[in-house]
Amino acid sequence: MPETETKELTAARERLALRQTALLSALVAGTPAPEGFDRARLRVQARALAAKRADVIAKIAPELPRFLGTEYRKEFLAYAAEHPLTGGYRQDALAFARRLLDAGKPGDPSARRDLRRWWRQRSGPAPHRSRELLRRARGVLGRGWRR
Question: How many CB atoms within 10 Å of residue 58?
């Protein structure tokens, strides 16, 4: 292939990569739609992707919808509009929970306490030990050792 064709091909690939990046950014990060794309259709698709993300988070962290009840989807979509997925779904669930706690949510003190406990158990380098689990384990092991 002649050198000029190689340069043209390289330039075309770079233009395509830039357009793909702009499209992806519009879909998941809320940036303006790239020229030549239907803005309304992109908004619809972006909402669908955010809803799918909420569904995935609800599957890997089913406690979150339980803590928030009917507010889960609304709260998650508001979070997703400001925070693109960057570190995987587990990190996304933890960041969402942290944002809720920082905002004093959920409104129910019992649910907020449960959410805080859930977040603490999962956010550290190793899961925190549960006193109840330790108490039960000691009880079971204690009975087994007496035989």
Answer: 17
Q: What was the pLDDT predicted at 147?
A: 44
What is the rounded distance in angstroms from the CA atom of residue 99 to the CA atom of residue 68?
13
Closest to 111 measured CA to CA, from 122, 97, 125, 123: 97
| Cβ pair 78, 96 in contact under 8 A | no
On the question of pLDDT at 128 being above 60, the answer is: no
pTM to 2 decimals? 0.72
CB 106 within 8 A of CB 68: yes
- Count CB-CB contacts under 10 A for residue 144: 8
Q: Are 26 and 33 in contact (CB under 8 A)?
A: yes
The residue to which tokens 């996304």 are assigned: 92
In sequence order, what are the residues at sequence separation of 6 or more whose Cβ sits closer than 8 angstroms to the Cβ of residue 45?
27
* Terminal-residue alpha carbon distance, the chain: 82
CB of 85 closer than 8 Å to CB of 55: no
Angstrom distance (rounded) from CA 40 to CA 28: 15
